[in-house]
Design goal:
It is a single chain. With 188 residues, the chain is an alpha+beta fold. The protein contains six helices and nine strands, in the order H-E-E-E-E-E-H-E-H-H-E-E-E-H-H. A seven-stranded antiparallel beta sheet has the order 3-4-5-6-7-8-9. Strand 4 and strand 5 form a beta hairpin. Helix 3 packs antiparallel against helix 4 and helix 3 packs across helix 5 (160-171).
């Protein structure tokens, strides 16, 4: 029943423009600005990892788009701009951040291209250790992927190909987490 109420509150909050969501104590704004464009919250959810049958809450992910995108195909076809926010619920050391991103890419990317490994490694290297409440942010502006770590711009990876690879982590055939994919699409 508790899970049903959380999903219901999240869906109602996403359906009301201008209403922020709260997930695990993290306030998810209904709108963000990217390159002069107002992006609306497309969906948000909690990423958990199960260790010895115990679910561990890792981060709250929020996905912003210029218009509602309710299917993986619509996301992959969209030219953006887009923004992902990952708000961590616990402190994470540098090596764990790198391991987590490396693992997610190894397990979930369904779109690769010549030069993918170089871009992936550059992306992972841009993130440092995180404090509890720390935010990693990924923005798509034109064909550039702009990376922010705890509010500091860390770099840019040029090209639509990397954007498609990154999107395939969340919306491809083997997403990081199926329940998070649905949440980011706003179709829980």
């Amino acid at each position: 029943m508790k899970k049903f109420l959380i999903v219901l509150v999240a869906l109602l909050g996403m359906s009301l423009p201008g209403v922020a969501l709260e997930i695990q104590g993290v306030t998810v704004p209904p709108q963000v600005q990217v390159a002069g464009n107002a992006l609306q919250l497309n969906g948000a959810g909690l990423r958990t990892f199960t260790l010895l049958i115990v679910p561990i809450r890792i981060y709250v992910a929020a996905f912003y788009t210029p218009a509602a995108l309710r299917t993986a195909e619509a996301v992959m076809a969209s030219a953006g701009p887009m923004q992902f926010n990952f708000t961590f619920l616990r402190a994470v050391g540098q090596s764990d951040v790198s391991k987590a991103w490396s693992s997610q890419f190894a397990q979930s990317v369904s779109y690769t291209y010549p030069g993918y490994e170089k871009d992936r490694d550059a992306f992972i290297a841009m993130f440092g250790p995180l404090s509890s409440g720390g935010v990693e942010q990924v923005r798509f502006v034109g064909t550039n992927t702009v990376i922010y770590d705890q509010g500091t711009k860390k770099g840019i990876i040029p090209g639509r190909d990397f954007q498609k690879s990154f999107l395939s982590l969340w919306f491809g055939s083997n997403p990081v987490a199926a329940d998070l994919k649905s949440a980011l699409l706003g179709v829980k």
